[in-house]
Amino acid sequence: MIRWLVRIGALYVAYKFGEEVGRAQARVELYPQPPLDYERLPSDRNEDEFGIEPF
User: Do residues 50 and 42 lie in contact, with contact meaning Cβ atoms separated by under 8 Å?
Assistant: First the structure.
């Protein structure tokens, strides 16, 4: 009986921990992201920036 109660308690703690991690992740995702800096992104036609060898 005690083992059963310990297992149930461990499952409950794991559930609550996962719930809190999910909340923290949701808070991080809700922060406004800085606008993209298009000058720092590689252009589509410049293979040197991607490191791709031409065929």
Answer: yes
CA–CA gap between residue 15 and residue 7 (Å, rounded): 12
CB 20 within 8 A of CB 26: no
User: Is the pTM above the cut of 0.70?
Assistant: no
Report the percent of the chain where pLDDT is more than 70: 62
The span from the CA of 12 to the CA of 54, in Å, is 56
**Token pair in block for residue 7:** 């297992």
Q: Which residues fall within 8 angstroms of residue 50, CB to CB, at 6 or more apart? A: 42
